[in-house]
Write a structure and sequence with these properties.
transcription regulation, DNA-binding, Tetracycline Repressor, domain 2, HTH tetR-type domain-containing protein, HTH_TetR
Length: about 210
């Protein structure tokens, strides 16, 4: 089937939707979902109630669901690529550092979204609302399996690989929480902190 070219009107509509979503996301992150009104979103973007409901008939709830769904697709793809990138031939410390630092970079790539998820995930109606937790759990299992294989290869000792995988992922999660909430948890440069913590953790497994 021949693809129908998008008209300037289509492009304008798409740009307007992106503008509305971005404005809503910024306000949700700043004031919370329940603390943000449709009027505030309209004022932020400079549009009327009618125009917002034209693009998002479900109003504020549809805006939240759309922000969530779009972010979910992007992050799942990135995290799948990260796990696939743990090559058996890499030094273990380097492989774990690349995994955790990339996970942190991915999550901090959109701090507004992460803040919304921490504060207002209960307001999301989607069946996939717990995708961040499930995403981490899935990668946790893949990491557990990878550590078992490294032990079989004699790189690390036999241990509770499930707990070891959680230990590694928690290093990155602590950084994300600190950066998103502005809590001074690590009190150091992120890259240096991650390298130090990964090296320290792996040294305990030898």
């Amino acid at each position: 089937m021949k693809k129908v070219p998008r008209t300037s009107r289509d492009l304008q509509a798409a740009e307007r939707k992106v503008q509305i979503l971005q404005g809503a996301k910024e306000l949700f992150a700043l004031h919370g979902y329940h603390g943000t009104s449709i009027r505030a979103i309209n004022k932020q973007i400079g549009i009327t109630d009618g125009l917002l409901y034209h693009y998002f008939p479900g109003g504020k709830q549809e805006l939240l669901e759309t922000i969530f769904q779009e972010a979910q697709v992007v992050r799942l793809k990135i995290m799948d690529d990260l796990i696939a990138g743990i090559h058996p031939g890499q030094p273990l410390e380097e492989a774990l550092y690349l995994l955790v630092s990339s996970m942190v970079k991915t999550m901090l790539g959109d701090k507004d979204f992460m803040l919304i998820m921490m504060r207002d995930s209960d307001s999301i109606l989607s069946d996939d609302k717990n995708f961040l937790s499930e995403m981490i759990l899935k990668r946790h299992q893949a990491l557990t399996d990878a550590l078992k294989q490294r032990a079989l290869n004699g790189e690390i000792r036999d241990m509770d690989f499930n707990a070891a995988a959680k230990q590694v992922l928690s290093i990155g999660i602590m950084v994300v929480i600190g950066e998103v909430t502005s809590l001074n948890i690590i009190n150091a440069d992120i890259d240096s902190y991650l390298r130090h913590m990964i090296a320290f953790t792996v040294s305990l497994w030898r």
